[in-house]
């Protein structure tokens, strides 16, 4: 699928028949499938259908069962928002009283779909004609065509006056540069333009890379880092107050939200906690908490301290449950030494090791090879890190496995 004509052919009866036939297609059989299908169909259409089948299979990780009905471009699969994250954002916008929204740089429509399902009428805008065709097809396939208006245009020229909210998802990948773009001003459009567009709307949300420097964030907005299943997916800059007068984003706020449960922590601007000796419990904060610089807030929740001023591991003398960090019972705190570690694991008949690192130059897989773990059934979690500046190894197990 490399042009609008081919995409349109996929939407026609013959293309639909091919896509249906390839619904459970095994990529390993692609050559045989292509040879068979080209006996009765034009080669470009067969190639397009096979390509779309591959994209749908890749998209299942983000869109679940919807992916089998949707239409994608390669960039669209790569850059679109995971459905769980889009649903969270749409729910927050709906709770703020948003009923109409301009979705700028909409791509293949992942966010527009979630917004429409939340009861919001969406103007979906993108300058790529193929992406716009995919949004229309996706809205139709999912029964949301009446909720989503698609416009092919340069987003910088779109008048968003009259909409309750604006959502901007700038492109953060570049074919010319060969991958991700880390400079917010190199986004398309630049972050500075998106910020100014957001400030003109009653409510606005800007999707940005989670690794954005904090000094690049506008102080009149709240920034939310979102993880899903423990993986940090994105950051969102929120502007404005609710259309219906309810509390809106907190200016200058930093928030970490953890999906799928939806726990959300708004920072209180606390100073970094003091470091101290390793206690009975080690806490590994969620990545969104670390990105949002909210480790101090979690430390206050658990009555904990840092194990090192530069390392985002917390420790405490008692177990306190928190959704924002994973707790481990610590059995040993030792200076880093491979031979001693190998002997200790053999003595304890450990055959399964989970190796984590933070602030260590040691690569977990290289260490695993050197340990040569035997066939024992016991398991152990090994933390390669620094304690008070010294290379150390901490041994333990998840709190859930504690006796």
Quick tags:
single chain; 7-stranded mixed beta sheet; 26% strand; alpha/beta; 13 helices; 9-stranded mixed beta sheet; 403 residues; 18 strands
Give a summary of the structure in a few sentences:
With 403 residues, the chain is α/β, with parallel strands linked by helices. 31% of the residues lie in helices and 26% in strands.
How is this fold's topology laid out?
Layout lengths: L3 H8 L1 H9 L8 H8 L5 H21 L10 H6 L3 H13 L4 E5 L5 H8 L3 E6 L2 H13 L6 E5 L12 E4 L4 E2 L4 E2 L10 H9 L3 E6 L13 E7 L2 E10 L13 E6 L3 E4 L14 E5 L1 H5 L3 H8 L2 E2 L7 E3 L8 E11 L2 H10 L2 E8 L6 H8 L6 E10 L2 E9 L5
Parallel strand pairs: 1-2, 1-4, 2-3, 4-7, 8-10, 16-17
Antiparallel strand pairs: 5-6, 7-9, 8-9, 10-11, 12-14, 12-15, 13-14, 15-18, 17-18
What does this structure look like?
Helices cover 31% and strands 26% of the residues. A nine-stranded mixed sheet has the order 3-2-1-4-7-9-8-10-11, sandwiched between helices. It is α/β, with parallel strands linked by helices and 403 residues long.
Shape: globular
Secondary structure class reads alpha/beta
Average predicted confidence as pLDDT? 92
| Proportion of residues in helical segments | 25-40%
Low-confidence stretches are none
Strand order of the largest sheet: 3-2-1-4-7-9-8-10-11
Cα radius of gyration in angstroms = 25 Å
């Amino acid at each position: 699928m490399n042009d609008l004509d081919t995409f349109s052919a996929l939407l026609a009866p013959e293309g639909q028949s091919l896509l249906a036939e390839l619904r459970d297609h095994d990529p390993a059989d692609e050559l045989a499938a292509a040879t068979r299908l080209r006996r009765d169909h034009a080669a470009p259409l067969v190639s397009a259908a096979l390509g779309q089948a591959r994209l749908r299979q890749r998209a299942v990780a983000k869109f679940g069962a919807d992916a089998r009905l949707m239409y994608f471009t390669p960039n669209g699969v790569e850059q679109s928002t995971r459905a769980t994250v889009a649903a969270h954002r749409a729910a927050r916008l709906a709770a703020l009283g948003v009923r109409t929204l301009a979705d700028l740089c909409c791509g293949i429509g992942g966010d527009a779909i979630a917004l429409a399902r939340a009861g919001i009428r969406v103007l979906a805008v993108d300058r790529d004609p193929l992406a716009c065709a995919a949004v229309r097809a996706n809205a139709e396939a999912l029964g949301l065509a009446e909720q989503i208006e698609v416009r092919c245009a340069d987003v910088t020229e779109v008048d968003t006056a009259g909409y309750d909210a604006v959502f901007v998802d700038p492109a953060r990948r570049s074919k010319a540069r060969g991958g991700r773009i880390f400079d917010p001003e190199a986004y398309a459009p630049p972050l500075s333009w998106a910020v100014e567009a957001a400030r003109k709307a009653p409510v606005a949300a800007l999707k940005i890379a989670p690794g954005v420097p904090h000094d690049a964030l506008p102080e009149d907005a709240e920034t939310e880092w979102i993880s899903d299943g423990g993986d940090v997916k994105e950051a969102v800059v929120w502007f404005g107050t609710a259309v219906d007068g309810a509390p809106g984003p907190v200016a200058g706020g930093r928030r970490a939200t953890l999906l799928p449960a939806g726990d959300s922590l708004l920072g209180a601007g606390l100073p970094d906690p003091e470091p101290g000796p390793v206690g009975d419990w080690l806490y590994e904060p969620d990545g969104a908490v670390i990105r949002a610089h909210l480790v101090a807030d979690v430390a206050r929740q658990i009555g904990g301290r840092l194990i090192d001023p530069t390392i985002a591991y917390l420790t405490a003398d008692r177990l306190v449950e928190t959704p924002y960090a994973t707790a481990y019972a610590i059995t040993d705190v030792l200076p880093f030494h491979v031979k001693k570690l190998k002997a200790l694991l053999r003595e304890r008949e450990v055959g399964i090791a989970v190796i984590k690192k933070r602030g260590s130059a040691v690569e977990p897989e290289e260490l695993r090879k050197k340990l040569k773990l035997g066939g024992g059934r016991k398991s152990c979690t090994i933390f390669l890190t620094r304690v008070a500046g010294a290379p150390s190894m901490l041994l333990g197990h998840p709190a859930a496995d504690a006796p």
